[in-house]
Fold this protein.
Amino acid sequence: MAVTLDINILDGIPRIAAISQKRLQRQVGRGKGPRPPEMEAALQPINPQKLTKVLVKKYGFSVLLPTDLFPDAETKLAEGNADRLESIRGCATVNFSSSQEMLRKVYDDYLAQFRAAPNQRTVDYKVIKDNWFVVSGTKGVKRGDDVFLMQLEYAGRVCNIPNAMLAQMSHAFDGN
């Protein structure tokens, strides 16, 4: 039997999302036989190619997300109460939130969170402008009295999101 488990991590706890089994033919002799195609596909890195504009109804703005990673983003975010998405294979999450603090304070708070994280997260890059900031995978955009935030976390070697796509997602999130 070949058993495939889809495991999602929710609030730091792994949960089995789906189980599929396939009966394999018995092979006589020594050595490994070929893996079933679905098992091979599960081992391949995800390399998203296309971004789709999705409305985050809860906050009233749109973002560009890779449909290869978040195929159900449009449906979940259109419901109006979702502010977190988990990708296929559970290798990436994107969180949306808002704050009524000043932009500079929200920026400083995110920098402090990165530096104080127990796993010693490194700040890969940081930029602050008049109405937006970026701290590694988090972008904040000031609109009216609110700062809207988009935070992307992922396991690079599993998801294999190209840097150009990360930059495109970040640039497209402008609060409009």
The chain has a mean pLDDT of 78. The chain has two domains: 2-43, 51-172. The longest strand covers residues 13-22.
